[in-house]
Design brief:
Chain lengths: 103, 277
């Protein structure tokens, strides 16, 4: 029991793992060549409102995610996994993100 | 097995719809359906008495709706929640030849989970397809005509005559079935070779017509597909909404049968399951 507690304490003291908070600003876009009916419709509406200079509208989704990670590399890897697991469907989407340490 | 012994799990979470019609379709044909919340299968936030085991059912039906507000993408959140704990059991369920039907949002869930088209084994790690925004960029709610194109691989449709056209209503905003652009033709050929195409949208003349007969712009007019072994089917239109003839839009204009066009799908799967188990 006592030895176990000492072990835990040693591990905490020696642990190099300082967890930091990161923010990932993720953009999910439609791949080139995939139709964007929402963008097309928006362009049409803008044209009707008199914005004849608008040549094209593309829509995308934006997610801002705060996450704990030990360093930038592991934060980046986690965001990649998040995008592939849920946020983007690789059939039509491509994703990009900017990662920063939370101030 | 007798029809009365066939247990059907009609799965629901927040935002599913037509689960009552789906439940009743199976009940009217003498099966034993049960409305089950996903939490009961996951064993989360439920009493012990409310827990359910997927393997106790012969048919899993994922109904339509707008599960979890269709956030992220249609069906993506429902799929993610199922994947969290049920990916392996559901893959096993499918391998055993039990039946899985996804209608509308349910089809989207099966695609997002990687169970359809199922070309790389029972389940693919990332989706091989997507049901995305209709070309019209609108919610399309209209009767649609579906031509039966399967050659009896699919266990949900074997009672339909080859080439028969069924009237089954569509109601969706994301029903355009896309495959990866660089492989779309090859995948389509594979689907045809494997007899995985079940329904295509047609006009009253039987042509593969464009909008509005094809409500979403789905390439090659595909409305429903099954997996290679035929026991997982997804379709955008709602067969449970036309179980009776009197829910057809034209029912007052001379009909020869009391039966709605959607009924045959529930009859087919019940017959398949009773024969198999």
């Amino acid at each position: 029991m006592v030895i176990g507690m000492i072990n835990v304490l040693i591990r905490i003291v020696l642990s190099p793992a300082v967890v930091e908070m990161f923010v990932a600003d993720i953009r999910i876009k439609l791949k080139k060549g995939v139709a964007d009916p929402e963008g097309k419709n928006t362009r049409k509406a803008l044209e009707l409102l008199g914005f004849s200079e608008v040549a094209d509208v593309k829509t995308s989704k934006f997610f801002s995610i705060r996450l704990d990670a030990q360093d930038e590399a592991s934060a980046k890897a986690a965001v990649d996994r998040i995008c592939l697991a849920l946020l983007a469907n690789p059939v039509i989407n491509e994703y990009s993100f900017e990662l920063r340490r939370e101030a | 097995m007798k029809p009365g012994e066939v247990k059907v799990c009609v799965l629901r979470i927040e935002g599913t719809n037509c689960e009552t019609e789906s439940f009743q379709a199976f009940e009217r044909l003498g099966a034993k359906p049960e409305m089950v919340h996903l939490k009961q299968l996951l064993g989360q936030d439920v009493r012990d008495s409310e827990r359910r085991n997927l393997m106790d059912y012969h048919i899993l039906m994922i109904p339509g709706g707008f599960s979890s507000g269709d956030y992220v993408r249609a069906g993506a959140i429902f799929a993610a929640r199922m994947k969290s704990k049920l990916a392996a059991p559901l893959a096993e369920y499918i391998r055993e030849g039990r039946a899985v039907l996804g209608v509308c949002n349910g089809f989207q869930v099966l695609v997002e989970m990687g169970f359809l088209p199922g070309l790389e084994g029972v389940m693919s790690q990332t989706p091989d397809a997507v049901l995305t925004t209709n070309d019209s960029s609108r919610f399309e709610c209209r009767p649609t005509l579906l031509k039966y194109e399967n050659n009896y691989n699919c266990i949900f449709t074997h009672k339909i005559k080859s080439g028969q056209v069924l009237l089954i209503p569509s109601a969706h905003a994301e029903g355009k079935l896309l495959f990866p652009q660089d492989r779309a033709d090859a995948i389509h050929k594979q689907l045809e070779d494997n007899d995985q195409i079940v329904f295509r949208y047609v006009s009253p003349d039987g042509d593969y017509a464009g909008y509005p007969w094809n409500p979403n712009g789905s390439p090659r007019n595909i409305a429903g597909i099954c997996n290679p072994s035929g026991n997982v089917m997804g379709m955008m239109p709602h067969p449970e909404r036309v179980f009776h003839r009197f829910t057809h839009p034209d029912w007052t204009r001379g009909f020869s049968s009391e039966l709605g066009d959607g009924r045959v799908i529930f009859e087919s799967v019940l017959e398949s399951v009773t024969k198999r188990f």
